[in-house]
Amino acid sequence: MTDPADPDQLHNVISSQGTSIGRHEELAAPPAIPPSREPWLPPPEHFNGELSTCWVFLSQCALIFELPPSSFPLDRSKRAYLITLMSGRALTWATAVWEQQPDICVSLEGFVGEVRKVFDALFSGREAARKLIQLR
Known about the structure:
Elements: H1 7-28, H2 54-66, H3 75-84, H4 88-100, H5 108-119, H6 121-135
Helix pairs in contact: 5-6
């Protein structure tokens, strides 16, 4: 007969129970959920200030801001992203606005509104029509 106080036997029994409990916990644990990836869109073409492409450029940027919201948590990061996608006269204008008129850059809506006033053909046409009507 074995001695119940035998330390080696006690150690083996405890190890065996620990292994059994470990297997049981593995079987009982829910399967790990893989981390989800946020959707990604390629950046739009650089906007050079051409009136006919302003609306499309701003729409594409708005979609990018919606899909992975964690990528652009602040209005300031969104405005900076817009400016990095500008070239030519649009970049020259945006750089001047960023440096000299910070009040325009306070909100994303304000900045986009100014971009539309300067570069959006539809907005410019509507604004011209409104001013003509006011002349009457």
